[in-house]
Design brief:
single chain; 454 residues; alpha/beta; Amidase signature (AS) enzymes; 14 helices; 13% strand; binds glutamine; Glutamyl-tRNA(Gln) amidotransferase subunit A
Length: 454
């Protein structure tokens, strides 16, 4: 199986999904899995996976798709990947992504864009982002599953664009230790797979308390696969009225209605709910995420990690910082650092950053109110459109790209779990996905509900 994946990856250059291949490690891990035997073996014994480039993997390039981390080979392994390998998983290599996980199309990657294996008239489409390489690799059967991270939709949006399943667990369910930080109060790891069952199995292996991440929750990890009973009778599903945006793509609207009908047919009660502060989520997210990014990315100074730009005679330490950061960070990352620095600056902190934090609380309360009324999960679109073409959303208009995240960022602000699951096709043959949002720590329930519509 591992060899078949290695061969498929070697033949998949056009997708630009794997950016560092590790066939030697994979074959060694596969041999160890065989030696262990498959009776009573750990859940992922011998299962070949791809790892998003944001995860630190010991001795293996971990660049976060950034020029500034070129050549960085960590001395340590992230907690999530350690857990996967302890469960017998095999690492095929590192997967493409948007630089530092900032983006929704994989186009901000220093390795160039990943390509969606789904095409319309041979046109190259994006697999979404930031976990675009993970989504493309799973959709093209280059691996059986992949890790992703989701700060504001980066697991769910690429899953929806590629007909794959991706779950962003409750904030704190998976350890962030060893995952290169983007926005620490939002970042969360999760699996990307072909089916809900595979995501359930992978998530059970990835999750769990970690002393090295003070925000990881000290809670037992359920057997998520055992929760997939297919029985959702009596579950209450909320349809948030505020997500019915004016001019929303007709096919997405139809998909959403069909999803509600499927849940009703399976015995759930479907009712309208209100999340009144939803329209403020996107601006609040981009203020908070950029603020945290500007602080997290201050560590890339040309001294401790990765590349240092060539210096001229007489250049001092300031020139070294400036030249290294100007050359190493791509345009989107520089934009976020500037926005983040601005909203945190003395004169503007209250007007932007503090206000965004207050909005965040209101958004969290909206969800709490809906769940307190007995709603088990919320059904919404994952994305406003199907996959778009590479280069179609222009660099000149970053806000147009940010608008892609309108349905996904809300739950990151509230720390809630969300899953994207493929439920339909567009008229031109592209996969379409819906999103289910669950109560905190109730991923088992969420996976079971998603399982009934996949
Ligand atoms: N598109 C969002 C952003 O650029 C989401 C990123 C993510 O979830 N990592 O911030």
């Amino acid at each position: 199986l591992t060899q078949a994946c290695i061969d498929a990856i070697d033949a998949s250059g056009a997708l630009n999904a794997f950016v560092h291949k590790t066939p030697e490690i994979a074959l060694e891990q596969a041999a160890a899995a065989d030696a262990r035997g498959y009776a009573d073996a750990p859940a992922l014994n011998g299962i070949p996976l791809g790892i998003k480039d944001l995860f630190c993997t010991k001795g293996v390039d971990s660049q976060a798709a950034s020029g500034i981390l070129k050549g960085f080979k960590p001395e340590y392994e992230s907690t999530v990947t350690t857990k996967l390998f302890d469960n017998g998983a095999v690492m095929l290599g590192k997967l493409n992504m948007d630089e530092f996980a900032m983006g929704s199309s994989n186009e901000s990657s220093a390795y160039g864009p990943a390509v969606n294996p789904w095409k319309v008239d041979d046109r190259n489409l994006t697999p979404g982002g930031s976990s675009g390489g993970s989504a493309a690799a799973v959709a093209a059967d280059l691996c059986l599953g992949a890790t992703g991270t989701d700060t504001g939709g980066s697991i769910r949006q690429p899953a929806a664009f590629t007909g794959t399943v991706g779950i962003k667990p409750t904030y704190g369910r998976c350890s962030r230790w060893g995952i290169i930080a983007y926005a620490s109060s939002l970042d969360q790891a999760g699996p990307m797979t072909k089916t809900v069952r595979d995501s359930a199995i992978m998530l059970s292996a990835m999750a769990g308390h970690d002393m090295k991440d003070s925000t990881s929750a000290d809670l037992a990890v359920p057997d998520f696969e055992a929760a997939l009973t297919g029985d959702i009778k009596g579950k209450v599903i909320g349809i948030p009225r505020e997500y019915r945006l004016d001019g929303l793509n007709e096919e997405i609207t139809k998909l959403w209605d069909e999803g509600a009908e499927m849940l009703r047919a399976a015995g759930a009660e479907v009712r309208d709910v209100s999340l009144p502060h939803s329209k403020y989520a996107l601006p609040a997210y981009y203020v908070i995420a950029s603020a945290e990014a500007s602080s997290n990315l201050a560590r890339y100074d040309g001294v401790r990690f990765g590349e240092r730009a060539p210096l001229g005679a007489g250049d001092g330490i300031n020139e070294m910082y400036e030249k290294t950061r100007a050359a190493g960070f791509g345009p989107e990352t520089q934009r976020r650092i500037m926005v983040g620095t601005y909203v945190l600056s003395a004169g503007f902190y209250d007007a932007y950053y503090n206000r965004a934090r207050k909005v965040r609380t209101l958004i969290k309360r909206d969800f709490e109110n809906v769940f307190a009324d007995g709603v088990d999960a919320i059904l919404a679109p994952a994305t406003p459109t199907p996959a778009f073409g590479i280069g179609e959303v222009s660099d000149a208009n970053p806000v147009e790209m940010y608008l892609n995240d309108v349905f996904t960022v809300t739950l990151n602000l509230a720390g809630l779990p969300g899953i994207a699951v493929p439920t339909g096709m567009s008229s031109n043959g592209l996969p379409l996905g819906l999103q289910l949002i669950g109560r905190p720590w109730e991923e088992a329930d969420l996976l079971n509900i998603a399982h009934s519509v996949e």
